[in-house]
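Following the same procedure, sequence and fold were stored together, as reproduced here.

>
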Amino acid sequence: MKLYLYGHEFHYEMENLCRLFFHRQKIEVLENCRDMAPEEDGALTLAAPDGAGGLDLLVRTRVGAYRGEGRDHTTADAPLQEAERRLGVLLFRQLSEACGIRPRWGILTGVRPVKLLRSLTGRFGEQEAARIFREDYLVSEEKLRLSLVTMRNEGALLARSRPDSCSIYVSIPFCPTRCAYCSFVSSSVEKTAKLIPQYVELLCREIEKAGQAVRDCGLRVDSVYFGGGTPTAISAEQLAALIASVHAHFDLSHCMEFTVEAGRPDTVTREKLDVLREGGVTRISINPQTLSDDVLRRIGRRHTTRQTLDAFRLARDCGMGNINMDLIAGLPGDTVSRFAASLDGVLALQPESVTVHTLSLKRSAQIFQDGVGEPEGEAAAEMLAYASSRLTESGFQPYYLYRQSRMVGNLENVGWCKPGFESPYNVFIMDESQTILACGAGAATKLCRPGENHIERVFNFKFPYEYISRFQEVLERKDRVREFYERSNGTVCPLS
């Protein structure tokens, strides 16, 4: 698929719209082209000055036997983003006709649609924001309702965040094996076991440095989140050392949540659960992804449904009273009926929250590279529709939502929970209104300026071996936290 651009710089958004319809194809972008090459599938997007300060807009598409053309116009007083939106609408409508599908999120391709809806609501009110979603962005009624409910449920948690609030993220990028759908920077324990002791030791030192930054800048910790990878892939002793380091270097007296992902059921043991409970962990996540052993084999998860059920019951026996479980819609070999059975099986366990993801076909994932077939978008949409209905009737409510590129069916990921069991960290990181101090390989600190839509990012090195070999640079980068707050507050944070 070729995308031709002329007279504008809306490369990113136009390419993402093409990818909604051709997610397994490479989108070749050609700039400064006024017309398409003959007989090749492609889309031309053109913006030309109208002589009065506005822009004449043209989109022309050719896909197989389909030929489409549309025109629009912006006036001199319209912001540049309006021309981008109108070009997007023309392109979306033509590609929908050409491909015979209409993605439910319309022209929205961003990660955080609820954040956009909240911003529009703050400016224009909820009714007008809903109209903009429906008419200007072409979002379906189904996804508009989901966004509205999620936005309202997020509100109570966001109201508890203060200008001096922050959250702590600790990255443990090790897994027993790499799942076929995974695109995260994670390393199998089998290949990197020798790195783990030194990694944990250095991570404790980075946690200490982050704790000093929190104290120097007068920040309050609202949540702590251990993610990965699979944090429980390391030993109980190593987990205990990391948790002890968090308690030693952060004041957790205002902390609303301490989550540790125990995502792979085959890493869950009584010894590790005892460490988590005794360390004040308030929430864990045990993630089956599916309760079909056949689908588990297809995606490279070396555990069984029985191990998932046993891990959950063991966690309950060890006193874990807030457990999340993840499922993925659209996995290779899955069907709507199998997915429904998985969800019903998870609900029978009575977890406090269930996160329903949609498969994202990232280029670095084994599934994408192997070309393994995934369910059609409509099948994945049926899975999510069943999940929404079943979870709602079971007393769960959606409390955070995000999207990823190349998702099957251009759908979404939604966190559902019973009232009172929301994960504050998930809400804060999706809203991007609170500083997240991140430690560990692959972690990215996000510094948020209170009261402003301004974010600065500080990245750690991606891979454990880089993190270890260049650790002094990791520590030095933490100094940017103090520098950021000095600029924001107009004051000098006290030296340690």
In short: The chain has a mean pLDDT of 93.
